[in-house]
Specification:
Blueprint: E1 17-21, E2 27-28, E3 34-35, E4 40-44, E5 49-50, E6 55-57, E7 64-73, E8 80-87, E9 90-98, E10 109-118, E11 123-131, E12 136-137, E13 146-151
Antiparallel strand pairs: 1-4, 1-13, 2-12, 3-11, 5-6, 6-11, 7-10, 7-13, 8-9, 8-11
Length: 153
């Protein structure tokens, strides 16, 4: 069965979807993996997101195969940055970009996507690493930073 369209407004238990995001900029220390914080969960059909704990916790009824997407933006270009999705404090998915152009006015975005088998009790968190020589801020907006997911089966 192909997934052709998902009507989030009329989602049922058969359509399990979440999106956890932040509307505030966050400071990222240089050369440090910083766990991102979230203050909004505009989509959460099964109450698996937590803005208090900045994570997504899979339950028995939501265990299965998920399409997971994550992204973050920076206020200026770093030499290198990584987005790290952790499952139970272990790296499960990573994306890396080098942005060596020193031009101003850029807000580089980093994204990742993966299909993951998730079990009851699995906890997902998102970290952002940047190596610019100093602290940089994330830029909130355009669904960044965020973790989003749809259960495939």
């Amino acid at each position: 069965m192909a997934l052709t369209k998902l009507d989030v407004a009329n989602a049922t238990e058969g359509h399990q979807v979440f999106k956890i995001t932040s509307t505030a900029n966050q400071s990222l220390a240089n050369a440090t993996e910083v766990q991102l914080t979230f203050n909004s969960a505009p989509i959460d059909t099964n109450s698996i997101t937590s803005t208090a704990n900045n994570n997504v916790t899979i339950t028995a009824s939501t265990a299965g195969t998920w399409l997971i997407m994550a992204q973050s933006r920076l206020g200026e270009r770093p030499g290198r940055h990584q987005l790290l999705l952790q499952k139970n404090d272990s790296l499960i998915l990573m994306s890396e970009k080098s942005s060596n152009d020193a031009g101003s006015g850029a807000n580089p975005t980093i994204e990742m996507i993966g299909i993951l088998a998730l079990s009851s009790g699995d906890v997902l968190t998102l970290e952002h690493y940047q190596q610019s020589g100093g602290s940089l801020n994330t830029v909130a907006g355009y669904d960044a930073p965020s973790i989003q997911g749809v259960r495939l089966f």
